[in-house]
Amino acid sequence: MSWKYVPSVLYLAFALFAWIDFMHAAQDGLGNLGLLLATLPVTAVGVILTSALGKTGFVLIPSGVDYYIAHAIYFWPAALLIAGGLLGFCSWISRLFAPKVK
């Protein structure tokens, strides 16, 4: 496995840990904090969208569905997006510093 995959794999392991921790936390709102911190770049976009739309609830977590399903709908696509971004960034760095072949 190339080094460029390592950050994405480590992040996905961290995301899995955050999800397991969330599943064992009480449904009091503090469990959400770990998920939102684990996906901080997407959370920042969600906060901006929530503010711009004038909503009171976080717009990226759907309402009207089961608590865990709603959080899974937000968390796993956000985690995969971040892991993909890490992979893209590391691939770019790898190409940038690759030895030039003549």
UniProtKB/TrEMBL annotation:
Statement: the UniProt record of this protein carries the keyword Transmembrane: yes
Keyword terms, alphabetized: Membrane, Transmembrane, Transmembrane helix
Residues annotated as transmembrane: 6-26, 33-53, 73-98
Name assigned to this protein: Uncharacterized protein
Organism this protein belongs to: Microvirga lotononidis
